[in-house]
Specification:
The protein is 23% helix and 0% strand. It is globular and about 60 Å long. It has a domain of 74 residues: Cytochrome c-like domain (Cytochrome Bc1 Complex, Chain D, domain 2). With 112 residues, the protein is mainly α. The longest helix has 12 residues.
């Protein structure tokens, strides 16, 4: 059985939901206006997401190899407070205000 890689949210091997642990990660464009975050909505802010990837990844047998350190344990980025603030600011800078307010992309079901 092909088991999907886990992103380290929990110490369990895989999500038991309909996707069996598989999900498509969205693009980062306009990420600041799309909370909640993660596949199950457990984080309400970008800072929580950055903090999680900095020091909160949980170990499990199917943890994505990109989230492991050289010793095989979950990687810890050990970012400073300023670095985490800068990363959140960068993610917020990916907001495309012109796209958000363009009438061509407005709700097609809204009543005029």
């Amino acid at each position: 059985m092909d088991v999907p890689d886990n992103i380290g949210l929990d110490s369990i091997d895989a999500d038991s939901g309909a996707g069996d642990g598989k999900f498509k990660a969205p693009a980062l464009r306009n990420v600041a206006i799309r909370p909640p975050y993660m596949h199950d909505g457990r984080f309400t802010s970008l800072r929580e997401v950055v903090d999680f990837y900095d020091h909160g990844v949980k170990n499990n047998s199917h943890l994505d190899p990109r989230l492991r350190g050289p010793d095989g344990a979950p990687a810890r980025l050990n970012l400073s407070e300023a670095q985490r603030d800068a990363l959140v600011a960068f993610l917020m800078a990916l907001t495309d205000e012109s796209f958000l307010h363009d009438p061509r992309f407005s709700n097609p079901f809204a009543k005029p």
